[in-house]
C-alpha cells in the first residue's frame, strides 16, 4: 500500500482525538501503522505494530539486531561514527538493516523509517541489555568530538544507564544552556532529571540546583513543582544561615 499523505492521515484520524500531525510524523504515512494506532484509540505502541516489527527483526541475521538496538536507544538521527563505535556492530550488519528497510541513511545520519519502528525495537530489548546499551552510548558519545556538546543526549544516556554522577554533570549543564537560550521548559526538565541524584552534591551545590529548578518551573507556570523545590530549599537555606 502506498504511503498515505498527511491529509489522508488527518482524514483517517478525524474524530479520534489524535493529533494528525503527530500521527503522520510517527508513522511516516505507513497505512498499517496509521490504522492500527487509530483503531487502538491512540495507544502509543499498539501490540499489533510491535509484533509486526519484531517479527521482521527476528527474520534478520543474528548480527543485524545489534545496530538496530544501538540506533534505537539513541536519538532518532544517529551519526555513523557513533553507530560503528558500538561493540560488535559491523558494516555488513548495518547494510542489512538498510537493505531490509528497517533503517535508512539520510546523509549524514542513520534513522528509522518510522518512530513506531524504533519504539517497537526498544520494546524488545531486555532491561539489562537496555542499560548496557545506554552505558555504551554514553561512553562513546562523551569522547566524540562535537561542538556544541550534545548535553541533553548525554544526560539521557547517563540517566538510563543509572550513572548518577554523570546524570548530574550533563543534566545540570544541559539545563544551564537551555535556560540561557530561554528554553525554560527544557531547562526545568533537565534540572528535574538532575534532582533525582541531588544527594550526591554538597549542600551549596544542592541549593544552587534547587534554586534553578524552582525558578525555571515558576517561569513555565509549573507552580506545584516550583513549590516542591522551594519546600526542600528553604530548610537548607535556614540551616546554612542564608536568606
Short description, anyone?
With 243 residues, this protein is mainly alpha-helical. It is 65% helix and 4% strand. Strands 1-3-2 form a three-stranded antiparallel beta sheet.
Describe this structure in words.
Helix content is 65%, strand content 4%. The chain has 14 helices and 3 strands. The chain has a 3-stranded antiparallel β-sheet with strand order 1-3-2. The chain is globular, with a radius of gyration of 21 Å. The N and C termini lie far apart (66 Å).
| Stretches with pLDDT under 50, minimum 5 residues | none
* Residues in β-strands, percent: under 5%
Order of helices and strands: HHHHHEHHEEHHHHHHH
Euclidean distance between termini CA atoms: 66 Å
Sheet with the most strands: spatial strand order: 1-3-2
What's the pLDDT, averaged over the residues? 92
- From the spread of the alpha carbons, the general shape counts as globular
Q: Helical percent range?
A: 55-70%
What Rg do the Cα atoms give? 21 Å
Amino acid at each position: 500500500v502506498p504511503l498515505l499523505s498527511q491529509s489522508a492521515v488527518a482524514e483517517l484520524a478525524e474524530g479520534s482525538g489524535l493529533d494528525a500531525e503527530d500521527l503522520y510524523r510517527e508513522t511516516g504515512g505507513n497505512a498499517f501503522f496509521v490504522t492500527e494506532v487509530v483503531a487502538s484509540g491512540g495507544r502509543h505502541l499498539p501490540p499489533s505494530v510491535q509484533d509486526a516489527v519484531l517479527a521482521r527483526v527476528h527474520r534478520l541475521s543474528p548480527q543485524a539486531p545489534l545496530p538496530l538496538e544501538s540506533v534505537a536507544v539513541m536519538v532518532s538521527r544517529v551519526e555513523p561514527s557513533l553507530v560503528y563505535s558500538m561493540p560488535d556492530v559491523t558494516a555488513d550488519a548495518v547494510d542489512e538493516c538498510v537493505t531490509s528497510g528497517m533503517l535508512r541513511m539520510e546523509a549524514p545520519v542513520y534513522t528509522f523509517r518510522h518512530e513506531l519502528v524504533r519504539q517497537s525495537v526498544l520494546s524488545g530489548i531486555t532491561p539489562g541489555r537496555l542499560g548496557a546499551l545506554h552505558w555504551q552510548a554514553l561512553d562513546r558519545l562523551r569522547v566524540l568530538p562535537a561542538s556544541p556538546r550534545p548535553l541533553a543526549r548525554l544526560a539521557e544516556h547517563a540517566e538510563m544507564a543509572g550513572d548518577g554522577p554523570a546524570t548530574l554533570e550533563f543534566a545540570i549543564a544541559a539545563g544551564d544552556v537551555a535556560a540561557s537560550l530561554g528554553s525554560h521548559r527544557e531547562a526545568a526538565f533537565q534540572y528535574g532529571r538532575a534532582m533525582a541524584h541531588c544527594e550526591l552534591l554538597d549542600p551549596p551545590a544542592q541549593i544552587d540546583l534547587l534554586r534553578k529548578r524552582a525558578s525555571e518551573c515558576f517561569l513555565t507556570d509549573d507552580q506545584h513543582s516550583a513549590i516542591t523545590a522551594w519546600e526542600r530549599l528553604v530548610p537548607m537555606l535556614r540551616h546554612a544561615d542564608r536568606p
